[in-house]
């Protein structure tokens, strides 16, 4: 199991001085990269071989968001491979060793040029699967609700992209969070976030964001009428 300590920066928090939900995913990305470096299966090493990691699904359970200047430990480990899919689990400990966030995710490998899933299991060196008492069930499929209202239209720009030249995973979460305004977040915070990534979004594309305005709330992101992303968020009042 790989562990890394972080001190939450003032650049990563909101007006409450707690970590913005989207920035949880930056922590997860960072530790996943570091955890796989020793066997050369991190995203940077694989990109030199024309291979990309892509996330397909992720669930995050938030008991508490860490505060500004708080030191936390982010832990991650791989689960047992499932055919062409690779589970990875995360949890975050506070300084008292309390688990404040848990997450489970499913990843795939794709050919960077063909943008197709790689089926060869031996294409990378893998770390042995592990488990922990804090492990969450693997994320499932989010059902697309029929009755949704249009929230906004956005064009994807250079700053939305990562080194794979598609919209960064964290930007999807920011789109999801932005379906509500500042007044809403004065009294609400997310306690559970589910993500289903279906199709890459690229620079120059225009996305349409829809919400069913329920709780849990289902958010759908479409490009040219097709669904690229589904998110589901449970909010609690504070």
Short recap of the structure:
This protein has 238 residues and is mostly beta strands. It has helices at 21-37, 43-47, 169-177, 182-185, and strands at 2-7, 51-62, 71-78, 85-93, 99-111, 149-155, 188-197, 206-211, 217-223, 226-237. It has two domains: 2-123, Hotdog Thioesterase (Thiol Ester Dehydrase, Chain A, Roll); 149-237, Roll (Thiol Ester Dehydrase, Chain A), CATH 3.10.129.10.
Taken as a percent bin, the fraction of beta residues is: 35-45%
CATH structural architecture of the largest domain: Roll
- Strand order, sheet with most strands: 1-3-4-5-2-7-10-9-8-6
CA-CA gap between termini: 34 Å
Largest sheet: 10 strands, antiparallel
- H-E order: EHHEEEEEHHEEEE
Mean of all residue-level pLDDT scores: 94
Query: What is the β-strand count?
Result: 10
Would you give the CATH topology of the largest domain? Thiol Ester Dehydrase, Chain A
Radius of gyration from the alpha-carbon trace, in angstroms: 18 Å
The quaternary organization reads as single chain
The CATH first-level class of the largest domain comes to Alpha Beta
**How many separate helices?**
4
The H-level CATH homologous superfamily of the largest domain, spelled out, is Hotdog Thioesterase
Gross morphology: globular
Secondary structure blueprint with pairings:
Blueprint: E1 2-7, H1 21-37, H2 43-47, E2 51-62, E3 71-78, E4 85-93, E5 99-111, E6 149-155, H3 169-177, H4 182-185, E7 188-197, E8 206-211, E9 217-223, E10 226-237
Antiparallel strand pairs: 1-3, 2-5, 2-7, 3-4, 4-5, 6-8, 7-10, 8-9, 9-10
């Amino acid at each position: 199991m790989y562990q890394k300590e972080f001190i939450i920066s003032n650049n990563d928090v909101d007006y409450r001085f707690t970590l913005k939900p989207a920035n949880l995913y930056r922590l997860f990305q960072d530790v996943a990269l570091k955890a796989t470096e020793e066997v050369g299966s991190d995203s940077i090493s694989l990109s030199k071989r024309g291979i990309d990691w892509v996330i397909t699904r992720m669930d995050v359970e938030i008991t508490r968001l860490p505060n500004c200047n708080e030191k936390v430990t982010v832990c991650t480990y791989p689960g047992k491979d499932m055919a062409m899919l690779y589970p990875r689990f995360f949890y975050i400990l506070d300084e008292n060793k309390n688990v404040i966030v848990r997450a489970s995710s499913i990843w795939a490998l794709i050919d960077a040029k063909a943008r197709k899933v790689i089926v060869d299991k031996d294409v990378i060196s893998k770390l042995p699967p592990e488990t922990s008492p804090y492990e969450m069930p693997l994320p499932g499929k989010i059902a697309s609700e029929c009755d949704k209202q249009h929230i906004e239209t956005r064009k994807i720009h250079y700053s939305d992209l990562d080194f794979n030249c598609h919209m960064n995973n964290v930007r999807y979460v920011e789109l999801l969070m932005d379906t509500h305004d500042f007044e809403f977040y004065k009294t609400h915070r997310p306690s559970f976030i589910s993500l289903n990534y279906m199709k890459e979004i690229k620079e120059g594309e225009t996305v349409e964001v829809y919400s069913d305005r329920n709780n849990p709330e289902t958010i759908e992101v479409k490009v040219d009428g097709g669904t690229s992303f589904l998110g589901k968020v449970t909010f609690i009042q504070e």
